[in-house]
Write a structure and sequence with these properties.
Elements (H helix, E strand, L loop, with lengths): L4 E2 L8 E3 L5 H4 L3 E5 L5 E5 H11 L7 H12 L2 E3 L6 E3 L2 H7 L5 E5 L4 E5 H16 L11
Antiparallel strand pairs: 1-7, 2-6, 3-4, 3-5, 4-8, 7-8
């Protein structure tokens, strides 16, 4: 499970060093793709395979499902961390997420999210108060 917030830097070659807490689970390979709110999602290869099994069940007749899958999967890139625990973020994904140098990497349970730090701070500022004041169940049976 991925948890916490980290602040790596993007190097001149478009690489980041994976946070130490995430390395073991991601060592066998990862898939990076577009995420919601213009961040990047990073899945372990195993988690992405499980996700793909669920995705394959989407009805081909649903335009919404087709559109989502096209955008989600067309941007996906399989990567293998190098010996320094770095991964390369493809240029098209860096552009999609507006990534420059300062990044915020968060653990989001079954995935890692990579954000431009300014975008993450704006997102958190816009949503933290609402989170703190949530009075109704958001996740059935849990919160």
């Amino acid at each position: 499970m991925f948890l916490g917030t980290h602040s790596p830097k993007l190097d001149d070659k478009g690489r980041i060093i994976l946070p130490a807490r995430f390395r073991d689970e991601l060592a066998a390979g990862i898939v990076v793709t577009r995420g919601q709110e213009n961040c990047l999602y990073v899945f372990s290869a195993r988690e992405f395979e499980d996700l793909h099994d669920k995705i394959r069940q989407a009805p081909v007749t649903s335009k919404t499902a087709r559109d989502f899958l096209r955008v989600f999967l067309s941007g996906a890139s399989a990567e293998l961390p190098d010996k320094q625990h770095r991964i390369t973020l493809p240029a098209n994904l860096r552009s999609y997420a507006g990534l420059e140098r300062d990044l915020t990497v968060i653990g989001a349970g079954n995935r890692v999210e990579i954000w431009d730090t300014a975008k993450w701070e704006a997102y958190l500022a816009a949503n933290e108060e609402e989170f703190a004041n949530t009075t109704e169940e958001v996740i059935p049976g849990l919160f």
